């Protein structure tokens, strides 16, 4: 067995572990509550004091022990106002975190019994948790990729439409950032790189003219792909490998991706890639983000306003 292709024990998260930790909706709700408000202690907006809150029977809510004011752990999160079982949500998160090239909405539909529309929306919401702002340090490799396919493979109503361009920046042996860009001009590409990469980092690219201004801010080295793929320490094989992973996943699992959603798919692949060496289950890392306020609720807005 190839030791580089085995999953380390610290990274494994099996179905049996999931069944044991999240057997019911109540267990999932308790997990979210503990992540947001440990031991149920948080500010009661009615009392104006830190109070302990207790579970309300039959509701996805907790009540202040003094005044009875309710708080809702799921408010503002990706689960906000969803009628789908909370355990199903966590199961979808586990599936999306346990794959390398992605899982389709049809597969989610088959495994959970929800409609295709619900499965697609759940995956869209989970991808919101995968977006992040990352600053990279050198040495880094930079390369762009096009998405959209050849016209010969498209139905007639999609032929002739412009392809989408994405810029990829990766640390050698480290993290990656993939971002949709409107064009491949020097101003656009170099501006994006300057936002993501720390100054004076060593940057490796191919010979595309748009990268020429990088030498002003970075230590810039190039490789001529028409002659060779590796020139001493200069190559872009790492970012090429990431783009290969993304394109295989989109072609084999999703088949096609709309322009307005491509960035969220790139966030998904980058999230998994950036945590491939973290010695914790990827499901745990993603589940911890479920308390993020993707659509701040009235309570959070009131607290911010105060």
Keywords summarizing the entry:
Nucleotidyltransferase, domain 5; four-stranded antiparallel beta sheet; 10 helices; elongated
Give the DSSP E fraction (strand runs of 2 or more residues): 15-25%
What is the H/E string? HHEEEEHHHEEEHEEEEHHHH
Q: Write down the overall mean pLDDT.
A: 89
- Please give the CATH architecture of the domain at 140-274: 2-Layer Sandwich
Envelope shape:
elongated
Name the CATH superfamily classification of the domain at 140-274: Ribonuclease H-like superfamily/Ribonuclease H
Radius of gyration, CA atoms, in whole angstroms: 23 Å
What is the name of the CATH topology of the domain at 140-274? Nucleotidyltransferase, domain 5
Largest sheet: 5 strands, mixed
How many distinct beta strands?
11
Write up what this structure looks like.
The structure is a single chain. This protein has 306 residues and is an alpha+beta fold. The chain has a domain at 140-274: 2-Layer Sandwich (Nucleotidyltransferase, domain 5). The protein has 10 helices and 11 strands. Strands 7-6-5-8-9 form a 5-stranded mixed β-sheet, with helices on both faces. Strands 1-2-3-4 form a 4-stranded antiparallel β-sheet, with no helix packed on it. A two-stranded antiparallel ribbon has the order 10-11. β3 (62-64) and β4 (70-71) form a beta hairpin. α3 (86-98) crosses α5 (116-128). The mean pLDDT is 89.
């Amino acid at each position: 067995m190839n030791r580089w292709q085995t999953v380390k024990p610290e990274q494994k998260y099996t179905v049996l572990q999931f069944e044991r930790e999240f057997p019911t909706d109540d267990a999932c709700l308790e997990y979210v509550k503990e992540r947001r408000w440990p031991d149920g202690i948080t500010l009661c907006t009615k009392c104006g004091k830190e109070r302990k809150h207790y579970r309300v029977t039959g509701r996805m809510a907790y009540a202040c022990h003094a005044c009875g004011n309710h708080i809702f752990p799921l408010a503002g999160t990706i689960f906000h106002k969803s009628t789908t079982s909370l355990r199903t949500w966590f199961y979808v998160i586990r599936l999306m975190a346990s794959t390398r090239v992605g899982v389709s909405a049809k597969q989610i539909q088959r495994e959970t019994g929800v409609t295709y529309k619900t499965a697609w929306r759940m995956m869209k919401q989970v991808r919101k948790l995968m977006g992040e702002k990352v600053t990279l340090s050198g040495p880094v490799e930079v390369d762009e990729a096009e998405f959209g396919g050849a016209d010969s493979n498209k139905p007639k109503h999609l032929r002739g439409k412009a392809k989408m361009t994405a810029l990829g920046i990766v640390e050698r042996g480290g993290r990656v950032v993939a971002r949709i860009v409107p064009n491949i001009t020097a101003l656009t590409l170099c501006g994006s790189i300057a936002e993501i990469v720390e100054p004076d980092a060593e940057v490796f690219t191919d010979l595309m003219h748009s990268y020429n201004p990088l030498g002003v801010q970075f230590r810039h080295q190039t490789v001529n792909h028409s002659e060779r793929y590796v020139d001493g320490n200069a190559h872009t094989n790492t970012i090429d490998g990431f783009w290969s992973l993304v394109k295989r996943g989109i072609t084999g699992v999703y088949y096609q991706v709309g322009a307005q959603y491509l960035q969220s798919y790139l966030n998904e692949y980058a999230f998994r890639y950036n945590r491939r060496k973290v010695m914790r289950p990827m499901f745990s890392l993603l589940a911890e983000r479920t308390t993020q306020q993707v659509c701040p609720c009235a309570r959070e807005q009131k607290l911010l306003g105060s």
